[in-house]
Design a protein that fits this description.
By secondary structure, the chain is of the alpha+beta class. It has a single domain (2-74), classed as 2-Layer Sandwich (GMP Synthetase, Chain A, domain 3). It is 39% helix and 26% strand. It is built from 3 helices and 3 strands. A 3-stranded mixed β-sheet has the order 1-2-3. A hairpin with a 2-residue loop joins strand 1 (20-26) and strand 2. The protein is globular.
Length: 76
């Protein structure tokens, strides 16, 4: 699932080398902490948070296929 998140984010940002994703596993719960370059933060969040919401929706759907609860935190 980390590869899916990396793929999605890399296609949205202008500096894909600055992407940092940390995976934290707690039983069936997985939390991804996403960090991108400061210039790309607006591209990830989008207007009114729509892109961030859709990224989280896609990751939750991927987690449901594996019976896991997935969340994505976008960090500064």
């Amino acid at each position: 699932m980390k590869e899916l998140l990396t793929y999605i984010v890399a296609n949205l940002v202008s500096d894909p080398d600055a992407i940092s994703i940390e995976e934290k596993v707690n039983g069936d719960e997985i939390t991804y902490e996403l960090r991108v370059a400061a210039d790309d933060m607006g591209r990830i969040i989008g207007r009114h948070g729509r892109i961030a919401k859709e990224i989280r929706t896609l990751m939750k759907a991927a987690g449901n296929r594996e019976n896991k609860k997935v969340s994505v935190d976008i960090c500064d």
